[in-house]
Task: inverse folding
C-alpha cells in the first residue's frame, strides 16, 4: 500500500502563495502526471512530496503514514531530476550505491541491487564511467537507476525527459512505462509535454496557479475538460472555442447561435443554460471540416493562414470572423495560404462552457 | 591561392604588433625579476663583492660555502624557523579552508532566516582595517595568557575570513541545487553533503584559497613579530628580519636565507599554476 494523500497542502515563498490548497489522493501503483503551464507549481508540489520543501499548511501522507515533518530520506520516495543531478565525481556504480550505503545496507546486498538495477536499465557497461563520459540518455538511465535501487514506495519524476532529443524521449517514455509495469510502484511524473502526459498517465492532474483544475484519466480530460482552461491547455493542436448565445434549451439539448453565424444544437448538456446567456462552444480540430463551398448547411467562413503538412494529416490554421480556428484534415486536401474556405461543424462530442468557463456538457 | 595564404599568415601589421607586444612583456618581466635575481646572486657572493664597483652581474667565484654557512649559524636557527613557517602557513591554510568553506556553503546552499543580513555583515567586516582591532585583540590574548604562542596567529583562521567566504560562496553558488537535493534524498546528512558532494565540485576554489592563505601567511610579518617572543618560535619572515637587525653587515647570509624563503613559494606556484588558470578562467569572481 503506497498511496499518497495530500490534504490542504499550501506553500508560500515569502509573501507569494505558490501552492494554494491541494487535496489529492494518489492510489497505490498508480502513475499520475502533473501538467500545467510553466510556473504553476508542479515542481514545488513534487518537491514538497519529496520533503525538499517545507509544507506551510496541510499534511502529506505516504503509505498510510503522515510524513509531513519527516526528512526526505525517511519518506520512502526517490526522485529523478530534469538535469539528472548525478554526482559528477562518482562513477555510475557509486552514484547508484550512494543512497544504499547511507542506509547502511551490507556491501554484498548493495552490489546485488546495483547490478539488478543496471541490468533492468541496460547500463551494466556504464557502471565504471563518470557521468561526464556518458550521453544524455545514458545519464538519464543512471539517474533512474539511482532511484530504483532504493526500492522506494513512490517515484517522483520532474520533467526527466525534457533534455533529451525527440526520438530518445519516445524510447525513454516507453522504458518508464515498462518500469511502471514491472516495478508496480506508485509514480508521480511532472511534464509539460502533452504526449507524455496522455501516453503515460493513469490519471492526469492539471494544475494552474497552484490549484488543481481537473483530475481525470487522459480520455476524460481530453473529451470532457472541466473548464475552458483545461480545454485550451490539453490537446495539440488546441481546441477551437466559439463564443455563442443560448437560443433555447430542451432537456439535454441546447440550441445555440454562434456569434460567427451558424445555429447549432449541442446534445448531452448536463447543466442548465437560460436563453440569451453567453456560452462558449468547444470543438476539437478533428471535428471541423473544410469544404470549398457547401450550400444549405450552416457554415463559418475562414481564410487559410498556414497549412502544416505532417505527412498523414494536415493542420490548417484559419482566421475566422471570431479569431483563429484550427482544422485537422486529410493530407490530399491541399490548401494554400490566402484561400477562402467554408468550415462545417461536427457536433458529436462537442463541449459547452458557461459564462464562467465551467463545463456544462 | 597558396601564395595568398602565405602572404596573409605573415601579415606585416600582425608581425610588428606581436614583436612590440613581446618586447614590452619581456621588459616588464625583466624589471620584476631583477630584485629576485639580485637576491640570488648576492647569496653566492661575499659581503664585499655585493657592493663592488662595477656591479658584478654574476658571482665569481660562486661561493657555495654560503649555503652551509647559513645552516651552521647558531644565532639564526634557519631550519627551525623554516619548520615554524611551514607549520604556521599550513595550519592557517587548513583553518581558512575549513571554516570559510563551511560558512560559504551555508550562505550559498542552505536557506535560513536572516541569511542575507548575516552575509552583509560578513562583507562589512572587509571594511574594517585589521590594525584598528589589533590592540584590543592583543590585550585579549594577553589576558588569556596566550601571548608568545601560535594560538593568536592560528586560531582566528578557524573562524573564517570575509574575503575567502565571499569568494568561495561564488563558487558554491554554481553548484546545482539538485545535487544537494539528490543527496538529501539519498539520506546524506548536511555535513556529509558538504564534505562528500559539494566540496569535490569546488576543489579548484579550495586550492586557490589554500594557496592565497599560504602565501599570505608565509610573508606575514606584523602578527608573529608582536605575538612571538623567542628566536626559536619565529617564522622565517620575522627570523630574517631579526637576523638582519642583529648583524646588519652579513648581507650574503641574509640573502641566502631570503632565497631559501622565497623558493618554496615559487615552486608551489609552479605546481599549482593550472588551478589558477582554471579557477579564474571558468567560474571565479563573476
Ligand atoms: N525557492 C523559491 N523561492 C521563491 N519562489 C520560488 C522558489 N521556487 C519556486 N518559486 C516560484 O514558485 C512558482 C512555482 O514554481 P515551480 O518551479 O513549482 O513551477 P513549475 O510548475 O515547475 O514550472 P516549470 O514548468 O517551468 O518547471 C514560480 O512562480 C516560481 O517563481
Ligand atoms: Mg518545474
Result:
Amino acid at each position: 500500500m503506497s498511496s499518497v494523500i495530500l490534504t490542504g497542502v499550501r506553500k508560500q515563498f515569502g509573501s507569494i502563495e505558490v501552492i494554494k490548497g491541494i487535496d489529492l489522493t494518489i492510489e497505490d501503483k498508480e502513475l499520475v502526471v502533473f501538467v500545467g503551464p510553466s510556473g504553476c507549481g508542479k515542481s514545488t508540489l513534487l518537491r514538497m512530496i519529496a520533503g525538499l520543501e517545507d509544507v506551510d499548511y496541510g499534511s502529506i501522507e505516504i503509505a498510510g503514514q503522515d510524513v509531513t515533518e519527516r526528512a526526505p530520506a525517511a519518506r520512502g520516495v526517490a526522485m529523478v531530476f530534469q538535469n539528472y543531478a548525478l554526482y559528477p565525481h562518482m562513477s555510475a556504480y557509486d552514484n547508484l550505491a550512494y543512497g544504499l550505503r547511507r542506509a547502511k545496507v551490507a556491501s554484498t546486498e548493495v552490489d546485488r541491487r546495483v547490478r539488478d538495477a543496471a541490468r533492468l536499465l541496460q547500463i551494466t557497461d556504464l557502471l565504471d564511467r563518470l557521468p561526464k563520459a556518458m550521453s544524455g540518455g545514458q545519464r538519464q538511465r543512471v539517474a533512474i537507476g539511482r532511484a530504483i535501487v532504493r526500492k522506494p514506495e513512490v517515484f517522483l519524476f520532474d520533467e526527466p525527459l525534457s533534455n533529451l532529443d525527440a526520438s530518445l524521449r519516445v524510447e525513454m517514455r516507453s522504458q518508464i512505462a515498462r518500469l511502471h509495469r514491472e516495478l508496480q510502484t506508485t509514480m508521480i511524473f511532472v511534464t509539460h509535454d502533452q504526449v507524455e502526459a496522455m501516453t503515460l498517465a493513469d490519471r492526469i492532474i492539471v494544475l494552474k496557479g497552484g490549484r488543481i483544475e481537473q483530475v481525470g484519466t487522459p480520455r476524460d480530460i481530453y473529451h470532457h475538460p472541466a473548464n475552458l482552461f483545461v480545454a485550451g491547455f490539453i490537446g495539440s493542436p488546441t481546441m477551437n472555442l466559439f463564443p455563442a448565445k443560448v437560443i433555447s434549451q430542451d432537456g439535454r439539448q441546447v440550441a445555440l447561435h454562434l456569434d460567427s453565424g451558424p445555429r447549432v444544437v449541442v446534445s448531452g448538456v448536463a447543466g442548465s443554460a437560460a436563453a440569451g446567456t453567453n456560452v462558449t462552444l468547444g470543438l476539437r480540430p478533428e471535428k471541423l471540416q473544410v469544404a470549398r463551398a457547401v450550400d444549405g448547411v450552416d457554415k463559418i467562413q475562414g481564410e487559410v493562414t498556414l497549412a502544416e503538412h505532417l505527412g498523414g494529416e494536415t493542420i490548417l490554421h484559419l482566421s475566422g470572423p471570431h479569431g483563429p480556428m484550427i482544422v485537422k484534415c486529410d493530407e490530399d486536401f491541399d490548401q494554400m495560404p490566402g484561400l477562402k474556405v467554408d468550415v462545417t461543424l461536427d457536433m458529436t462530442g462537442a463541449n459547452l462552457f458557461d459564462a464562467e468557463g465551467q463545463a456544462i456538457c | 591561392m597558396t601564395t595568398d595564404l602565405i602572404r596573409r599568415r605573415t601579415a606585416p601589421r600582425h608581425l610588428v604588433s606581436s614583436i612590440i607586444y613581446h618586447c614590452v612583456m619581456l621588459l616588464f618581466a625583466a624589471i620584476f625579476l631583477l630584485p629576485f635575481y639580485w637576491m640570488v646572486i648576492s647569496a653566492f657572493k661575499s659581503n664585499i663583492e655585493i657592493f663592488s664597483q662595477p656591479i658584478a652581474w654574476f658571482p665569481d667565484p660562486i661561493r657555495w660555502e654560503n649555503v652551509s654557512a647559513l645552516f651552521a649559524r647558531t644565532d639564526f636557527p634557519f631550519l627551525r624557523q623554516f619548520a615554524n613557517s611551514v607549520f604556521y602557513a599550513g595550519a592557517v591554510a587548513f583553518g581558512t579552508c575549513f571554516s570559510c568553506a563551511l560558512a560559504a556553503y551555508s550562505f550559498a546552499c542552505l536557506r535560513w532566516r536572516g541569511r542575507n543580513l548575516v552575509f552583509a555583515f560578513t562583507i562589512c567586516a572587509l571594511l574594517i582595517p585589521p590594525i584598528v582591532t589589533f590592540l584590543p585583540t592583543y590585550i585579549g590574548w594577553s589576558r588569556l595568557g596566550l601571548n608568545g604562542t601560535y594560538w593568536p596567529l592560528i586560531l582566528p583562521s578557524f573562524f573564517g575570513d570575509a574575503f575567502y567566504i565571499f569568494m568561495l560562496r561564488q563558487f558554491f553558488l554554481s553548484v546545482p541545487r539538485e545535487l544537494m537535493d539528490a543527496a538529501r534524498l539519498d539520506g546524506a546528512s548536511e555535513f556529509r553533503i558538504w564534505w562528500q558532494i559539494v566540496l569535490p565540485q569546488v576543489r579548484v576554489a579550495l586550492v586557490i584559497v589554500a594557496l592565497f592563505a599560504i602565501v599570505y601567511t608565509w610573508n606575514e610579518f606584523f602578527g608573529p613579530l608582536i605575538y612571538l617572543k623567542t628566536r626559536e618560535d619565529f617564522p622565517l619572515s620575522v627570523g630574517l628580519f631579526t637576523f638582519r637587525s642583529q648583524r646588519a653587515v652579513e648581507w650574503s647570509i641574509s640573502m641566502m636565507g631570503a632565497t631559501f624563503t622565497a623558493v618554496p613559494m615559487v615552486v608551489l606556484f609552479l605546481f599549482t599554476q593550472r588551478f589558477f588558470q582554471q579557477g579564474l578562467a571558468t567560474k571565479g569572481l563573476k
